[in-house]
Design brief:
A four-stranded mixed sheet has the order 21-22-1-23. A four-stranded mixed sheet has the order 2-14-16-15. Helices cover 31% and strands 26% of the residues. It has helices at residues 24-33, 50-61, 88-91, 97-108, 127-135, 166-177, 192-203, 235-247, 263-272, 309-316, 335-341, 357-360, 394-406, 416-419, 426-431; strands spanning 4-10, 15-19, 41-44, 65-70, 73-77, 110-114, 139-143, 146-150, 158-160, 181-186, 207-212, 215-220, 228-230, 251-255, 275-279, 282-286, 295-297, 321-326, 346-350, 375-380, 388-390, 409-414, 436-441. The protein is an alpha+beta fold and 442 residues long. Helix 1 (24-33) packs parallel to helix 7 (192-203), helix 10 (309-316) runs parallel beside helix 13 and helix 11 (335-341) packs parallel to helix 13 (394-406).
């Protein structure tokens, strides 16, 4: 993929209806889970995003068969898999490799995969995942930029994650489903995407249930078969549309949203005085007058999602007063805020006093640096003006697009290839709501 930029002429309210795609953060992981079966699986509501395409390429490189039957339905056939080693390309831009090692380990007794890539929003603490795999009987060895994992036989175990890890929980779910005996995962992630993956694994014949909010029991060792599964809606995409409506003083009806999945965001909308109603799978968001400031602290589900804080930031530049966003999941996730400064936002970076950092912060404290800031103050209302800015990650790119839609005049967003890893044709969806966006490649 070449470099991509968008030209956005902002200053117009977005009005209309948008339908969210399937969740990227479930889809590519379900594709990998399908490799544990002895027959093909059908995955429906799969978004057409780069992370999905990259995982499809990796599966084919390993000998598996991947077919896109219709735009949102994929067939995954694991039977032809014939290799246990995958190259850094195509996975260097995703965090899929820690999951992909599991079906290779189960089938071949070893796996050589690149260390996970993905957005540059902070270090992803892989140690929590690798320690869990070792508890299940795997042997892990680092070889440069690669991980070599071997196991003669996986076995059930009891493992407590020292801190929350979304992908780590999913990786151990895959491994434990194939490990004879009972596994208890404690302090496990409880994101809706995790439960969606559990639903797919159970449809394949796994025996997995939550015994409490953060404890998952797996009766492992069952022979898994292919299954049909519909990927859940993408709550991050839904929040992106909601923020675009508020930042542009518009009104959008968002279809395909499950209210419990965005409950923490709905609470913030009430806090700032935004218009919002949910009815079954439809969510209407509108700007109904001056916005109030907010104090937000990110947290794993059911808290305010770390992926939402970049998206709400442009909205808070239009609130009357000082808002605070305190990021506790990643140690360095305010790259986008420096780009917002170039668009006229008034933002201060700071580190709030924290009594017990190890309990508050989900990242490993040893990954922190003096130059990293964990919070920002946003002062508003501040008129945003057009600028040329660069996206550094998926949701940071979403924040810059929202800001450009609110700013009067023409902005250029570079680095859109990052954004397109996680959004399916967002430019077309925004155009249907009245946005003026031109896509350029070069």
């Amino acid at each position: 993929m070449g470099l991509v930029r968008w030209r956005i002429r902002g200053g117009r309210p977005l009005i209309g209806r948008a339908r969210v795609s399937g969740a990227k953060n479930t889809a590519f992981k379900a594709m990998i889970a399908a490799l544990l079966a002895d027959s093909p699986s059908l995955l429906e509501n799969v978004p057409d995003v780069e992370d999905v395409r990259l995982v499809a390429c990796a599966i084919e490189e390993l000998g598996g068969r991947v077919m896109r039957l219709v735009p949102t339905t994929w067939l995954i056939d694991p039977r032809p898999l014939n290799a246990s080693r995958v190259s850094a390309c195509p996975l260097e831009r995703t965090r899929a490799s820690s999951l992909l090692l599991v079906p290779l380990l189960v089938r071949f007794g070893e796996a050589l995969v690149p260390e996970p890539g993905g957005d540059r929003i902070g270090r992803r603490p892989l140690d929590r995942t690798l320690t869990g795999l070792e508890a299940l009987g795997a042997r892990v060895e680092k070889r440069g930029e690669y991980l070599l994992v071997r196991a003669d036989r996986l076995r059930g175990t009891r493992y407590r994650f020292p801190k929350n890890t979304h992908t780590g929980t999913e990786t151990l779910l895959l491994a434990a489903a194939c490990a004879p005996g009972e596994t208890l995962l404690e302090n496990a992630a409880q994101e809706p995407e995790v439960d969606d993956l559990i639903a797919f694994l159970n449809a394949m014949g796994a025996r997995i249930c939550r015994t409490s909010e953060r404890t998952i029991r797996i009766e492992g060792g069952a022979q898994l078969h292919g299954a049909r599964h519909r990927v859940m809606p993408d709550r991050n995409e839904a929040v992106t549309f909601a923020c675009a409506a508020l930042a542009t003083k518009g009104e959008i009806e968002i279809e395909g949203v499950r209210a419990p999945d965005v409950r923490a965001f709905l609470d913030v909308l009430e806090q700032i005085g935004a218009g919002s109603t949910c009815c079954e799978m439809s969510w209407r968001v509108w700007h109904r007058g001056p916005l109030r400031p907010a104090i937000i602290q990110t947290a794993p589900h059911p808290g305010f999602m770390t992926d939402w804080q970049p998206l709400i930031a442009p909205v808070l530049t239009q609130a009357e007063g000082m808002s605070i966003i305190h990021e506790t999941v990643f140690e360095n996730r305010f790259h986008y805020a420096r780009e917002l400064l170039r668009m006229g936002a008034r933002i201060e970076f700071f580190n709030p006093p924290v009594e017990n950092p190890d309990a508050v912060y989900n990242f490993n404290l040893e990954d922190d640096r003096p130059e990293f800031f964990h919070a920002i103050r946003i002062f508003g209302p501040t008129p945003l003006h057009p600028a040329t800015v660069r996206a550094m990650d998926i949701r940071g790119g979403g924040a810059l697009v929202i800001a450009a839609l609110a700013a009067r005049g023409e902005s250029v967003i570079e680095g859109i290839e990052h954004l397109e890893r996680g959004y399916e044709r967002l430019d077309l969806a925004l155009r249907a709501l009245g946005a003026e966006i031109e896509r350029e490649e070069g």
